[in-house]
């Protein structure tokens, strides 16, 4: 795996998961609410907040054709232009949101959806870029993003392995300062049973880059499981209250839930540790309380050792229990007292 950094924060195997609070359209058209979301992300312990930088006219066009209208799901019947007009974050808010994030000790970056958004985000000194799932096939856009010399995080969504490889290549050819992939199920919301988290390890093995999860499933269990399976980045939508509505509210976490996600993901990472099969380190001292062979009844010198006077018990200072068949039938070389750990010097020839 090739790790990289976002504003000095290492991203990759062995480092705590980098947790991104996605604001998306949960501002509900109010700058004050968007700023409050940044504050909530900081209070919850996120590493970064992420915006989406587009207008309805840069991401689609206003055309009344069937393919421009959503069929089924959370946004059934809505036109793309209508939905994106509601969900977009006004560009004139971006500077205030970036500034609030810096004040709160958070990184702030965005998903650009066309070259004008990339140019605009460069004026704000964005420390990284995110490519949304449906833009992974726009290799000219990805190459342009890579050319800014910043880290690039790419969601894989509905992409094939070949399309993922092309997106990675475009970012690298552009000059990206590190690339990560996010496993993503592009359903809103995504059902837990559809999450296919084993894909995280598969992507890491196939491409040798840090891999995380862009999570649209309910709750935080899937994100925690992803960290246990090696996810280096977790991206999750944040809202002040689902009851307030909005285009993304149904699959977003409220602040207390997001704080629990952050805490549990980092706890899961702490629990991973390193693979070891020895007794060194934590808990090794408790080997004293494993079973071993002990004298459980007084034995006179020359008497035969039997199951009545030798047993496998705790603690573990005597001979290993595997030697019991060899020990039984031997004669004691000296008087043995109840409670002594058995050793080879106590054993004479068999009777």
From TrEMBL:
GO terms for molecular function: transferase activity. The keyword Transferase applies. Keywords: Transferase. It is an enzyme of class 2 (transferase). Its EC number is 2.5.1.97. Residues 292-350 form the AFP-like domain. NCBIfam families: PseI. This is Pseudaminic acid synthase. SUPFAM superfamilies: AFP III-like domain (SSF51269), Aldolase (SSF51569). InterPro entries: AFP_Neu5c_C_sf, Aldolase_TIM, PseI-like, PseI/NeuA/B-like_N, Pseudaminic_synth_PseI, SAF, SAF_AFP_Neu5Ac, SAF_PseI/NeuA/NeuB. It comes from Roseinatronobacter alkalisoli. CDD domains: SAF_NeuB_like.
């Amino acid at each position: 795996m090739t790790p990289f950094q976002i504003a000095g924060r290492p991203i990759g195997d062995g480092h705590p998961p980098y947790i991104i609070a996605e604001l998306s359209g949960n501002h509900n058209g109010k700058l004050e609410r968007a700023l409050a979301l940044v504050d909530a992300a900081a209070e919850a312990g996120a590493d970064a907040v992420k915006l989406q930088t587009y207008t309805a006219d840069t991401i689609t066009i206003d055309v009344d054709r069937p393919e421009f209208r959503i069929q089924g799901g959370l946004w059934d019947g809505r036109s793309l232009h209508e939905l994106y007009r509601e969900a977009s974050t006004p560009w004139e808010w971006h500077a205030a949101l970036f500034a609030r994030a810096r004040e709160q000790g958070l990184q702030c970056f965005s998903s650009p959806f066309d070259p004008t958004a990339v140019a605009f985000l460069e004026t704000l000194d964005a420390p990284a870029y995110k490519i949304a799932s449906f833009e992974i096939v726009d290799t000219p856009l990805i190459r342009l993003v890579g050319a800014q010399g910043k880290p690039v995080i790419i969601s894989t969504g509905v992409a094939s392995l070949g399309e993922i490889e092309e997106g990675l290549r475009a970012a690298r050819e552009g000059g990206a300062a590190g690339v990560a992939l996010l496993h993503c199920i592009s359903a809103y919301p995504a059902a837990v049973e559809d999450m296919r988290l084993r894909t995280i390890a598969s992507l890491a093995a196939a491409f040798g880059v840090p891999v995380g999860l862009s999570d649209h499933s309910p709750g935080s269990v899937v994100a925690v499981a992803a960290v246990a399976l090696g996810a280096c980045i977790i991206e999750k939508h944040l809202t002040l209250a689902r009851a307030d509505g909005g285009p993304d509210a149904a699959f977003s976490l409220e602040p207390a839930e997001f704080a629990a996600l952050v805490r549990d993901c980092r706890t899961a990472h702490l629990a991973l540790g390193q693979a070891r099969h020895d007794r060194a380190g934590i808990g090794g001292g408790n080997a004293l309380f494993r079973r071993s062979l002990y004298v459980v009844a007084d034995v006179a010198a020359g008497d035969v050792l039997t199951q009545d006077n030798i047993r496998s018990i705790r603690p573990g200072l005597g001979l290993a229990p595997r030697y019991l068949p060899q020990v039984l039938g031997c004669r004691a070389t000296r008087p043995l007292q109840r409670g002594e750990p058995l050793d080879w010097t106590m054993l004479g020839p068999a009777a």
